[in-house]
Amino acid sequence: MRIENLKAKMARENLESFLITDMKNIYYLTGFSGTAGTIFLTKNRNIFMTDSRYSAMAKEIISGFEIIETRDALAQLPEIIAHENLKTVAFEETVDYAFFKQLSTIVRNIEIFSTSNFLMEFRQIKDEDEIRNIRKACEITDKAFLDVLKFIEPGREEIEIANFLDFKMREFGASGTSFDTIVASGKRSSLPHGVASHKVIEFGDTITMDFGCFYEHYASDMTRTIFVGEANPKIAEIYHVVREANQKLIDKAQAGLTYADFDKIPRDVIEQAGFGKYFTHGIGHGVGLDIHEIPYFGQKMTEKLQTNMLVTDEPGIYLPDLGGVRIEDDLLITENGCEVLTQAPKELIVI
Ligand SMILES: [Mn+2]
Considering the domain boundaries, does residue 260 fall inside one? Predict the structure, then answer.
């Protein structure tokens, strides 16, 4: 079905052939999860190329493709191009320069051109299986958060807390973390993406933890901010503003909401509270096979949310030299609202 949808789009947009090298796109189309593979699609043929390490596995799990075993997929192209009488080859713009140079050298005398996010139109709408996997990834993330609350105490390093979260997520069934776990404490919590450091947790610290995992190739992404011993009153004030912004978006998110409004609804809450200039990043992003994928949101974007998109809601306020708060949930967009897949508590927690 996925491959049929893609080939129909290729026909609509006059792509005679398409070279796919992004491993997430390859997984999406075939279920192949090895580390080396290349897809080449033409009107008449679906070709999957991989080397001898993976060809047996590919033959077993991939249907609807010719499997070619080769250590150099690009070297196979001239013959296919000649056989299919192709005039153009499209490729993904995310390829690296060395690949582009090799492609330009091997594919001569016909036009090559790049496409942007060609498969994402499909990937951004999740099917039942994908939703089930992301739901599970979110459950694992929630459980790790509940456990880390019992682990955090003054004297521990941020890195120890990050390692604990990573270990717990694996223990609960994750295949790994979906990105490097962020633990930013004290003044460091004012760094929106403070990677865990050797800083030691102290009484009175604010701690922002942004973490997530992969379950069956699908990601979760959650942020919670908590306090150790006591909450600094100014940070407690912004905590309530951020939480209100996060909740207001949950209340309003549904299919049909424009990307501009998705950004504006929580941003207005923070601006009206007088902290607009301290909310310095985007409100959210899509989550799926990639931890960050479309949709992204901006103030003038007229596109609309669609049913079964999976997006984050992550307002934050960061007061320089004092500390910051971010609360992030993963939302499944539905026809009449949204479902919050990350269920870890959001009331102000002091441990
Ligand atoms: Mn995020």
Answer: yes
Where does residue 317 fall: left (phi above 0), alpha (psi -120 to 50 degrees), or beta otherwise? beta
Ion ligand 1 residue ranges (Cβ < 5 Å): 221, 312
Do 278 and 317 reside in the same domain of the chain?
A: yes
Cα-to-centroid distance, 44 and ligand 1 (Å):
40
Q: What is the pLDDT of residues 104-156, one digit of tens each?
A: 999 888 999 999 999 999 999 999 999 999 999 999 999 999 999 999 999 99
Full residue range of the structural domain in which residue 84 is found:
2-123
25 and 71 co-located in one domain: yes
Assess contact for 331 and 134: CB atoms under 8 A.
no
User: What pLDDT, in 10s, does the model give residues 280-310?
Assistant: 999 999 999 999 999 999 989 999 999 999 9
We report the CATH number of the domain holding residue 168 as 3.90.230.10
Residue 350 belongs to a domain? no
Helices marked H in the chain — which ranges?
2-12, 23-30, 55-61, 73-84, 97-106, 120-123, 128-151, 158-171, 233-252, 259-272
* Phi and psi based region of residue 19 (left: phi greater than 0; alpha: psi -120 to 50; beta: remaining): beta
| Counted domains in the chain | 2
Supply the pLDDT for residue 193. Answer: 82
Q: Are residues 86 and 142 in the same domain?
A: no
Task: Give residue 92 CA to ligand 1 midpoint distance, Å.
Answer: 24
Q: Is 321 left (phi over 0), alpha (psi -120 to 50) or beta?
A: left
How much distance in Å is there from the Cα of 334 to the middle of ligand 1? 20
Q: Do both 196 and 280 map to the same domain?
A: yes
Per-residue pLDDT tens digits for 31-69: 999 999 999 999 999 999 999 999 999 999 999 999 999
Asked whether residue 25 is domain-assigned, the answer is yes
Q: How many CB atoms lie within 10 A of CB 193?
A: 12
